[in-house]
Write a structure and sequence with these properties.
This protein is an alpha/beta fold. It has two domains: 2-83 and 170-268, Alpha-Beta Barrel (TIM Barrel); 91-156, DNA polymerase, domain 1, CATH 1.10.150. 39% of the residues lie in helices and 16% in strands. The protein has ten helices and eight strands. The chain has helices at 18-27, 44-50, 85-111, 118-122, 132-141, 148-156, 171-180, 199-205, 219-231, 260-268; strands at residues 2-7, 30-35, 56-65, 73-78, 184-187, 209-213, 235-238, 258-259. Strand 3 and strand 4 form a beta hairpin. The two termini are 25 Å apart. The relative contact order is 0.18. The chain binds adenosine monophosphate and manganese (II) ion (3 copies).
Length: 271
């Protein structure tokens, strides 16, 4: 009995719709999954409806945090109340800011001689969350680049000329929002952080869990984050962060899982 508490659908930058993701999860004999799209909970309901009786779906979200001295900290919210109006208001704000930021990215591309319209990019976004992943797809289909990886490298990656950062939460705000929506805040993929200097700040703000299982973590890192979690009284979590086929990663679904005992401990941390 295994679980995967980090999965994306095409409601954000994944490629499978919630139905399909649930079918894949069942194929891999997962007993519990969390839908954790960036800045939206729109895929949760469909996944819950589509899930067979033996597969439990946890409503979740992934929030990007930033600010002074904070390099992209990602916060997962598990078991959030998707009807929380304070949470939904903030998610809406983030999605709107993605639209303005996309216009700026397209402006920069135009200055580089690549004319892509907003509509052309929006076609790749299933619904409300428009991301760099979608511009990358448009650039591939236009024949500007041969792969999405090349699109990030040459145009929209963090060190590339058309990169524009987007609005992010303060880490404390993300944790507060998740807690206020009845959810469990979990620090995503700490292995992708350059340093863990922010950890005490997150713990002070009410962090409950830490992802120790993630495709970006080596087995040694998983071991060391498990120890670190214990030291800081954080509950271990993890998952595949699968975005479906055609993204930057392989299909990790079914390969990065956690025991149900971890899920139970996280679930009991709700208040
Ligand atoms: P955004 O949230 O708009 O900043 O876009 C970030 C998303 O772009 C990530 O969640 C990935 O899905 C995707 N991404 C980032 N780097 C790459 C890459 N090198 N190749 C393909 N997709 C990428
Ligand atoms: Mn993503
Ligand atoms: Mn992330
Ligand atoms: Mn993710």
């Amino acid at each position: 009995m295994i679980a995967d508490l980090h999965l994306h659908t095409n409601e954000s930058d994944g490629t499978w719709n919630p139905d399909r993701l649930v079918a894949k999860a069942a194929e891999h004999n997962l007993a519990v999954i969390a839908i954790t799209d960036h800045d939206t909970t729109a895929g949760v309901e469909e996944a819950v409806q589509a899930a067979p009786a033996e597969l439990k779906v946890i409503p979740g979200v992934e929030l990007s945090c930033g600010g002074a001295n904070v390099e992209s900290v990602h916060m997962l919210g598990l078991w959030i109340d998707v009807d929380s109006s304070s949470l939904q208001e903030q998610l809406e704000l983030m999605r709107t800011s993605r639209i303005r930021r996309m216009e700026e990215i397209l402006h920069r591309l135009r200055k580089m001689g690549i004319a892509l319209s907003f509509e052309e990019v929006a076609k790749y976004a299933h619904k409300d969350v428009i991301s760099r992943s979608h511009v990358a797809s448009a650039l591939v289909d236009r024949g500007v680049v041969n792969s999405k990886a090349e699109a990030f490298q040459a145009y929209i990656g963090e060190t590339a000329p058309a990169y524009v950062p987007r609005l992010k939460f303060r880490p404390e705000t993300a944790i507060e929002l998740i807690l206020a929506a009845g959810g469990v805040p979990v620090l995503a993929h700490p292995g992708l952080l350059e340093s863990l200097h922010i950890l005490p700040r997150l713990v002070d703000a009410g962090l409950v869990g830490m992802e120790v299982v993630h495709p970006s973590h080596s087995p040694e890192q998983t071991e060391s984050y498990l120890k670190l979690a214990q030291e800081w009284n954080l509950l271990p979590s993890g998952g595949s962060d699968c975005h479906g086929p055609g993204g930057k990663d392989e299909l990790f679904i079914g390969r990065y899982t956690i025991p149900l005992a971890w899920v139970e401990a996280l679930s009991e941390a709700r208040w």
